[in-house]
């Protein structure tokens, strides 16, 4: 939801984080813990979404 509110596209965020869009979609749907992605991707997600994972 936050990504959409900030106007960041799924593809754009996935590319920046080095993740597959399908994986990012599953993260957003709560299918698994976002802390399980690699630290670099987590840092990008936190920075772009202005959140702490």
From TrEMBL:
Q: Which GO terms describe its molecular function?
A: DNA binding
Q: Which domain of life is it from?
A: Bacteria
Protein name from the UniProt record = Putative transcriptional regulator
- Per the UniProt record, the source organism is Deinococcus metalli
